[in-house]
Design brief:
Shape: globular
Order of helices and strands: HEHE
Helix content: 25-40%
Number of strands: 2
Radius of gyration: 13 Å
Oligomer: single chain
Structural class: alpha+beta
Strand order of the largest sheet: 1-2
Length: 67
């Protein structure tokens, strides 16, 4: 993964379970999702799956990144 040895956080894709586990008040948050088109679609899908409203999701794509 290329993650520093000192990192103690999670290392994985953003899933509905990860959102619920790491952000207990996720329904009250504003999310900024930026990255490759595939990563943005996947993360937005996870946010929608846990009930985050579209108005609380902002996206930005890095078109030059590989999926």
């Amino acid at each position: 993964h290329g993650v520093p040895q000192w990192w103690q956080g999670e290392v994985d894709r953003v899933t509905p379970a990860l959102i619920a586990r790491q952000i207990p008040d996720y329904l009250d948050r504003l999310f900024y999702v930026s990255g490759s088109a595939e990563m943005v679609r996947s993360t937005v899908g996870a946010l929608r799956a846990v009930g985050v409203h579209e108005r609380n999701i902002r996206t930005d794509y890095f078109s030059g990144l590989a999926s």
